[in-house]
Amino acid sequence: MNKNFLTLGIETSCDDTGVAILKNDREVVCEFLSSQIKDHSRFGGVIPEFAARKHLENLLPLVDAALKESGIKPSELNLIAVTRGPGLMGSLIVGVQTAKALSQVWNVPLIGVNHLEGHLFAPLVEAADLEPPFLSLIVSGGHTEIIKVNSFGDYEILGQTRDDAAGEAYDKAARILGLKYPGGPEIDKLAKSGNSHAFSFPIPLKSTDKIEFSFSGLKTALLWQVKKFQDSNSELPISDLCASFQRAVTEALIAKLNLAVKITGIKKISASGGVSANSALRDALSKNKNFRAWLPKINRCTDNAVMVAMAGRNSFKRNQNFSSEIIADPSLHAL
Ligand code: KG4
Ligand code: ZN
Questions:
Q1: How far apart are the C-alpha atoms of 242 and 185, rounded to whole Å?
Q2: In this structure, is the dihedral angle defined by the CA atoms of residues 281, 284, 290 and 296, taken in order, positive or negative?
Q3: pTM, entire model
Q4: Which of 242, 305, 324, 331 has the largest CB neighbor count within 10 A?
């Protein structure tokens, strides 16, 4: 009899198919990710119908691979944790229905995970020393929010974006600059050889005393700047534009984290979601004197199944009265 608690995590909320097995609270036994970036980048963004079909093709082979690599039998699993929302409806349904079928066939309990709670747990895989209360910055393609983690399961959203998410802003900026999807990593790469002070893009709401973000004006400011170069037939100083845009996003995020620390008195910050892979943000977070920051490993900033397994395992421990009657919910929000 295996005394370890084994969780199979499944993530299919957007365009990454993720499968992982977690031993006990945070020991990663194996993790697999099949990214569709190459498939979608030729369209300049995620095509929902196509993403769902790819999950269907990829998910069961990844589950098989995880069991094979780990040598774990389905009968040894203690829990299946699957993302139930928010995300793309078709993508979520593939994950949820597959997880339900496996749970019934294998007779393993099933738990639904909020994708945002998954992101919140990503830095905790390595950070056994990060205990609530702490502040969690979730910066992804769909979300930009600062959450006060009173205890695991007790979350307060202190503030969020009024319009675009930070990752969405990166993706739209990249499109304006003629770069490929997803835009964040492209801008990050080009920014390395650019001057971040070459352009001074507006940092909306930076000095208000509310915890809130707005990135849509920043994207428009970039568009006008690019148009000026195009109208005068001048070559785009692309690295400088990337570095300056990245500085503006980073400053907006750091300003509101500083404010959240001031308001709450909590000096422990975790950051997660795709944009937490950004090198300028990681640098600014780790050098900040007002707080200590915990970040996920680069490959666990973006969507993955380890974070889902960890959040599911934690939630299962807290709440034995959970329901396995899960339905995919694309607009699930409240944590
Ligand atoms: O967390 P994630 O994989 O998916 C969502 O839940 O949305 O985040 C994807 C987002 C994309 O918008 C992508 O451009 C952004 O994260 N991203 C980055 C970087 N890597 C990924 N943004 C800025 N810098 C990066 N290095
Ligand atoms: Zn995500």
A1: 11
A2: positive
A3: 0.94
A4: 305
**Residue 328 C-alpha from the chain's centroid:** 18
Span between the terminal Cα atoms of the chain, in Å: 35
Pairing relation of β-strands 144-151 and 154-161?
antiparallel
CA of 312 to the centre of ligand 1 (A): 22
Both tokens of residue 236?
């785009």
Q: Do 8 and 17 touch, CB atoms closer than 8 A?
A: no
User: What are residue 165's phi and psi, to 5 degrees?
Assistant: -80, 160
For the stretch 181-229, pLDDT in tens is 899 999 999 999 999 999 999 998 888 999 999 999 999 999 999 999 9
Please tell me if the CB atom of residue 174 comes closer than 6 angstroms to any atom of ligand 1.
no
Token pair 């992982």: residue = 20
3-state secondary structure of 161: strand
Tokens representing 178 are: 């003629």
List strand residue ranges (DSSP E) for the chain, in order.
6-11, 16-23, 27-35, 79-85, 110-114, 134-139, 144-151, 154-161, 212-213, 268-272, 292-294
Element (H, E) at 78: none
Q: How far apart, in whole angstroms, are the C-alpha atoms of residue 37 and residue 264?
A: 38
- In the reported structure, the alpha carbon of residue 116 is separated from the centroid of ligand 2 by a whole-number distance in angstroms of 7
What percentage of the chain's residues is helix, strand, coil (to nearest 5)?
A: 45, 20, 35
Give the separation between CA 205 and CA 284, rounded to whole angstroms. Answer: 19
Tell me which of 13, 168, 170 to substitute to probe ligand 1's pocket, judged by most ligand atoms within 8 Å of the beta carbon. 170
Q: Give the mean pLDDT of 104-128.
A: 96
d(C-alpha 145, C-alpha 116), whole Å: 10
Would you state the pLDDT for residue 330? 87
